[in-house]
Amino acid sequence: MMTPPQPPPEPELDDFDFIGVLGEGGFARVSKVRHRRTFDVFALKEAFFPSPDAVEEAEVLLRAASFPSPYVVQHHAVYLAPDGGLSSVLEFMDAGSLHAVLYCRDLVVRFPEPVLAEVAHRCLMGLAQLHSRGVAHLDVKPDNFLCNARGDVKINDFNASRILYGLAGEKLLVATDMGTHAYFSPERFDPDALADPRAAMAADVWGLGLTVLELFLGRAPVVTEAEDKKKAEDWKKAICDREPPFSVPEDVHASPELRDFVAACLHKDPTRRARVPYLLKHTFVTNRDAAAASAALRHIIMENL
């Protein structure tokens, strides 16, 4: 397997040449850059504004990068300016996000169940590793899983993430309204709901369930008729008042294993929602032919390049 490029220890921002913009959001810009000495290519993420949460986000990035993982985008360097400006040098993922793959060239690429099971396994492994490092992602959605030509799928973008435990093992307050309302679990609309780390991890599972459902259906599971889709109260109504619960529609052909997996992720009560270790052992994931599914996933990703 090809080893991803590694910059020299402690690279400086001035060591990189700008190639082009990969994407922009409301908080940051991500650019494609090349290291001036090694010529290796990376992604550089730069926040638009100083943030009062920058110190915690920097700690999140350092925890996420505490050891290389095939399921978490590698952060090679983190720069925190005195005014709270945050920049980081990331592993370059050349195939974009799962969202980009799904809606490739204005066509919807629905993921077959074996491929979806492989994607679910990789996403779960990424969440398991973050949770084991005391990090809740809190913005799990297709946009935040990146792909490359090797067929890897890795979790990324920790703007909304929070640290669950301090260095001494004490619980930390993780309440946050950051993230994407369309992928919020019902309890996240309560500002105090995430004070318990277990609730924060359960919120990540909800986002995973919606991600799997979207990749399978080829459309966003949660919609609102409101003209301004950025209003939290409209999303709260669309998610919390939804009856019946979110699931694979009855008129869509799907295996019992997939239906049960999605239902386990999308239980409205976070105390009854499945946990990541349970889902890693779910038959929907464990019954896949990993080699064949990986090859098929790589083929789907390559079509997006």
Q: Can you put this structure into words, describing what you see?
A:
This protein is an alpha+beta fold and 305 residues long. The protein folds into 2 domains: 13-91, Phosphorylase Kinase, domain 1 (2-Layer Sandwich); 98-302, Transferase(Phosphotransferase) domain 1 (Transferase(Phosphotransferase), domain 1, Orthogonal Bundle), CATH 1.10.510.10. It contains 9 helices and 9 strands. Strand 2 (28-35) and strand 3 form a beta hairpin. It is globular. Its EC number is 2.7.12.2. This is mitogen-activated protein kinase kinase. Residues 16-285 form the Protein kinase domain.
* Overall average pLDDT: 87
Give the class-level CATH name of the largest domain.
Mainly Alpha
Q: Mind telling me which CATH architecture of the largest domain this is?
A: Orthogonal Bundle
The 3D shape can be described as globular
Structural class: alpha+beta
Strand order of the largest sheet: 1-2-3-5-4
- The fold-level CATH name of the largest domain is Transferase(Phosphotransferase), domain 1
Low-confidence stretches: none
CATH superfamily of the largest domain: Transferase(Phosphotransferase) domain 1
Number of domains: 2
* Number of helices, where a helix is a run of at least 4 consecutive DSSP H or I residues: 9
Distance between the termini: 20 Å
Order of helices and strands: EEEHEEHHEEEEHHHHHH
- Rg over C-alpha atoms, rounded to the nearest angstrom: 19 Å
Question: Total number of β-strand segments?
Answer: 9
What is the helix fraction of residues, given as a range?
Answer: 25-40%
Share of β-strand residues? 15-25%
Binding site for ATP: 45
Family: Belongs to the protein kinase superfamily.
InterPro entries: Dual_spec_MAPK_kinase (IPR052468), Kinase-like_dom_sf (IPR011009), Prot_kinase_dom (IPR000719), Protein_kinase_ATP_BS (IPR017441), Ser/Thr_kinase_AS (IPR008271)
Keywords: ATP-binding, Kinase, Nucleotide-binding, Phosphoprotein, Serine/threonine-protein kinase, Transferase, Tyrosine-protein kinase
